TrEMBL record:
Organism encoding this protein: Pusillibacter faecalis
Domain BPL/LPL catalytic residues, every copy: 1-185
Cellular component terms (Gene Ontology): cytoplasm
Record-level Gene Ontology MF annotations: biotin--[biotin carboxyl-carrier protein] ligase activity; transferase activity
Name this polypeptide is given: biotin--[biotin carboxyl-carrier protein] ligase
Annotated keywords: Biotin, Ligase, Plasmid
Pfam families, alphabetized: BPL_C (PF02237), BPL_LplA_LipB (PF03099)
UniProt enzyme class: ligase
Amino acid sequence: RFLKNTEVVGHELIYLKETDSTNNDVKRLAKAGGMDGTVVIAGCQTAGRGRQGRSFQSPQGKGLYLSLLLRPRLPAERLIPVTALAGVAVCRAVKRVCGAQLGLKWPNDPVLGGKKICGILTELTAGLDVVLGIGINVAQTSVDFSPAVAEVATSLQMELGRAVSKAELAAALIEELDQMYAALRAGDLAGDLAFYRKVCVNLGRTVRLLSDGVWETADAVDIDEEFGLVVRDARGRMRTVRSGEVSVRGL
Ligand code: BTN
């Protein structure tokens, strides 16, 4: 009802009132030969997953929880930007529906008011299918987050002071993801890279990097063509850090 024409994403759309994790659903679909661009949306998740083995709290009616099955038949190195591109798609969708400009905390956390508004979990299957999971905090209030999570997370409703339609947001997000997927397949990422650089909250600031248990401080200077973070370290040397290699603090 809300969807305009999309090329691939959302032609198959599955809504589940409750599930363990939409990423798990999409993984099962990938094994079963599911269609490229299939979207699974859930009302709530009983075992929502975050990165680094963390859980993602997914209470009924509060967030938009969806996962996407992409079968691009591209070599692994062409899939590196997917998570960053999904962050760009989330920013564009939120801007369209709410007018608010989110920032992106490298590598892929959409933020608003200095706190995280959305989580993105990308998983690759052995056959190089992409399982792209996105959870946007829409209607949570402070009581919906545990105290530790409330320190770092917020919702659109809390930041904007008004209700946001999950259906409209889902439709806009599916359209943005469809365009992002076309760009990925075409290898035409210049527009998304420019957008990313514009909204990235780390650039021009100091970041703290954690790699192999060691913290170091560096200046974030750019995003490279593969959406890696280019930093100048304490000794003045430039280097690029890749997502997965390091954890970044400093907002
Ligand atoms: C993170 O910030 O650590 C990533 C969180 C990803 C949450 C989404 S919600 C939809 C999809 N299903 C999951 O189990 N996780 C992702």
